[in-house]
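Hi again,

Forgot to attach this to my earlier email, sorry! This is the prediction with pyridoxal-5'-phosphate bound. I've pasted everything inline since the attachment limit keeps bouncing my files.
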Amino acid sequence: MDAKRDTTDSFIAKEARYGARNYAPVQVVVDHAKDCLVWDVDGREYIDMMSAYSSVSHGHLHPRIVAAAQRQLEKVAVTSRAYYGTTLGPLLEKLSEVTGFERALPMNTGAEAVETAIKCARRWGHRIKGVPDGRQRILVARGNFHGRTSTIIGFSSEPEYRNGFGPFDGGFQHFDYGDMQSVKAAATPDTCAVLIEPIQGEAGVIVPPPGFFQELRAWCTAHQVLLIDDEVQAGLGRTGKWFAFQHEGIRPDALILGKALGAGLLPVSAFCADDKVMQVFSPNSHGSTFGGNALAAAVALEGLKVLEEEGLVDHCAEKGDYLMRRLREVQDEVRPLIRDVRGRGLWIGVDIEPSCTTARDLVERLAAHGLLSKETHETVIRFAPPLTITFELMDRAVEIFRRVAREKHAELAGRVARQGTPA
Ligand SMILES: *Cc1c(COP(=O)(O)O)cnc(C)c1O
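Structure tokens for the complex follow:
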């Protein structure tokens, strides 16, 4: 065995030997990265079309964001919210400017910001709407993904995320994503919020039917129900607008941000709402030791400025349209291997025909050819590159995808031909 392969195997073996088995990573050992490119320990180069589930929207180690982190590291990193600081206020102000919401509550991971939203909705339901405490209900969509805490997986409809982790407390009611009749059927007078993704990411990049969010918005308003929009993955430019709700021509009552808010460096999340909702939080009612720490706030603030000043949001729609068109060309060439190519902006799901192969099979082949992606469920390959990706790099990525898809297509044709030949 050559020495290089040996290094790769030893890193993989160590994670496998000492880690919990809660992930099944693609067999690539990342050593370092720059913008849209990643190199493994053997020096092999990859195009990153996954960007850590949209956390790396700015590209890896964006120089301005690294510099902002370094400047802050010369001063102070963590103080807790026991004191004020010089970076949190400016971050909150900037968040208010870009989201249009009056206030934000900083947390670290996406799941914590979702928990914040749930607590806020329940307290709002009790104190403002008048639902008896303990009876508040929140509507969630089937196929949702909002994170991995025990409360959140309690309302997942995915057995893999839930099995063996109960008991679950309840207080959540499912409806079918994109189906207004189903929302109405699930609601009761105790319903205080609808928690929803503007595009269902982990479910396979599911884009809602036109008009659904407008109807949902109107229904929520009419029934005094908060519309809480989880844009942990969709937000901050990913779909070609700052926020995916802008495609729908609506404004939610609250917005959850994470992933790209950390600008590819740190976990930073936030729950954003106007004062009439946020007012339910009083001192000691909620918090997080690391939430809004000085370093995280400096990084997130610079990340928002970079998105704005480098026009990353503006260019995303055009780049996304281009990538979608090129991927659909490949779809036409390898029929029936790919049954759908869908998404919005630089967030694309390529849905594989299950009788042909699995998404994972293709993801592994793409990695072997220098393209990083990730499957979600059995059939969908997700492409969500950094928003900094160039047209030239997208062309290179599409060429790799074409090659892998054609190889698979040829294999399948061979299989059919062999099976079709009488023995
Ligand atoms: C990733 C994700 C979360 C959870 O974020 P974590 O940082 O992994 O806790 C929540 N909601 C959505 C829509 C996500 O995509």
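The mean pLDDT is 96. The chain has two domains: 3-60+312-419, 63-309.

That should be everything now.

G.
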